[in-house]
Amino acid sequence: MKNRVALYLQDAHDLRDGLDYVRYAEEKGFEAVWQAESRLVRDAIVPMAAYAAGTEKLKVGSGVINNWTRNIGLLASTFLTLDDLAPDRIICGIGAWWDPLATNVGINRRKPLTAMKETVLILKRLLAMERVSFDGEFIHVNNIELDVVHGRKEPRNVPVYIGATGDQMLELSGEIADGVVLNYCVPPEYNQNALEKIAAGARRAGRKLSDLDLPQLVVCSVDEDHDKAIDTTRELLTQYLAQQPHIAKASGVSMDIVHEIQSILGWPATHAQIRKAKHLVPEDLIHRITASGTPDEARAKVKEYMKNGCTCPILYPVGGDVHLLIETFATD
Q1: Containing H/E element for 33?
Q2: What is the spatial distance between Cα 59 and Cα 34, in angstroms, rounded to a whole number?
Q3: Which residues are CB-neighbours of 166 under 8 A, at least 6 positions away?
Q4: DSSP-derived pairing of the beta strands 90-95 and 65-66
Q5: At what angle do helices 255-264 and 226-243 cross, to 10 degrees?
Q6: Whole-prediction pTM
Q7: 299 CA to centre of own chain
Q8: Confidence class for position 1, pLDDT limits 50, 70, 90
Q9: Which residues, listed in sequence order, are joined to residue 86 by a DSSP beta bridge?
C-alpha cells in the first residue's frame, strides 16, 4: 500500500492559491486536504466547500473546528451539505478550542470533556439520520432530525475525528471518535504516550487502537536552502508558543522561553513583534518538533512521526514553495 499523505492549509496563502495547491496535491497522489480554523482569521467551512467542488477524489477535512460556537443542529446540517457536495469525501475534525481566545469571545470552556462527548455523539446520530431527543449538560434537543426533503435521505458517511492534545481528551477520542488528529509542534516521541491514552479509551468502548485512524499535523517548511526553511519555521513557532501554551507544554518547551516571547508579542501579534522575538526559538527545537529543511531532511523527519504511530502526515506548509513540498511528498 502506498504511503498516505495530506495537505494542511491555514491562512498563510490566498484562498485562490489554496485551490491551486489542493488540485496539485490531488494530482500528486495526496489523499486529503485539511482546512484550519483556529485564530480569528479564516473560517474552515467556506474553503472546504471550494476544495470539495474543485476536486474529484481528495478527502476534505476540517482541521479543526471547535465544538462551542456552532449549534449542534447547524453543525450537522453543515456537514450534511458538504457531503452533498462531495459524497463520502468529507471529514469532520473537531477540537475543544483554546484560551485565551475562547474566553476573549465570551466562551467559558467548562467541562471540555463532557461538552466534546455530547457534541460528537449527537452529531454522529444526526448524520446517521436518526431522530434525536437529548437533554444533556450542554446539548438540549427535542425530537430533531436532518430534514431532507429533496436529495439523499440515507445515513451520511462523515467520519468524526477529534483534535486532541491532553491525556483525557486523547482517551475520550479513543472511546468515541473515528479518528484522532494528533497535534503539531510536538516531537515524534510525544506520540507514544498519546497512543497509550487513545488505546485505553478504545478499550473502554470494546475497540482496538487499530480501529482508529491517527493522522498527524506536521509543520513542514521545505526549501532547497536549509537556512531559509528553518527561518520560516522559526517565525511560526514564535507565534504559536506564545499564543497556544498547550502546544508549548506538549512539545516540552521551557516556560521561561514562552514567557519571554509572550512579553514581546501582543494579541494579535504583529509581524514586527514576531521578528523581534524569533531569535528566542532555538534551532534544535525547530528540528525536534517540525519537519523543516531541505526535501531530504523533511522526508526523514516525517518518517519519524510515521514510525511513532502517525497513520497519515498532514503537512502544514508554513512558507516557501508549496509546490516543492507537494512534489517532495508526492505518491503518484
Answers
A1: strand 32-35
A2: 8
A3: 246
A4: parallel
A5: 90
A6: 0.92
A7: 20
A8: low
A9: none
- Whether 8 and 316 have beta carbons less than 8 Å apart is answered as yes
> With contact defined as beta carbons under 8 Å apart, do 198 and 171 qualify?
yes
For residue 92, the cross-strand partners are: 160
Helix 167-176 / helix 112-127 crossing angle, nearest 10 deg? 20
pLDDT over 70 percentage in the chain: 99
Q: Which CATH number fits domain 6-223+291-328: 3.40.1000.20, 3.20.20.30, 2.60.320.10, 3.40.50.300?
A: 3.20.20.30
Taking the C-alpha atoms of residue 277 and residue 174, their distance in angstroms, rounded to an integer, is 38
What confidence tens digit (pLDDT) does each residue in 18-68 have?
Answer: 999 999 999 999 999 999 997 889 999 999 999 999 999 999 999 999 999
Distance CA 207, CA 209 (A): 7
Contact 24, 13 (CB under 8 A): no
Please list, in sequence order, all residues whose beta carbon lies within 8 angstroms of the beta carbon of residue 218, skipping any fewer than 6 positions away. Answer: 184, 290, 291, 301, 302, 305, 310, 313, 314, 315, 316
Question: For residue range 172-226, what is the model confidence (pLDDT) as tens digits?
Answer: 999 999 999 999 988 999 999 999 999 999 999 999 999 999 999 999 999 999 9
Q: What per-residue confidence (pLDDT) applies to 96? A: 95
Pairing assessment for the beta strands 312-317 and 215-222 based on DSSP bridges: parallel
Q: Where in the chain is the domain with CATH 3.20.20.30?
A: 6-223+291-328
CA distance 197 to 14: 38
Residue type, 195: L
313: left (phi over 0), alpha (psi -120 to 50) or beta: beta
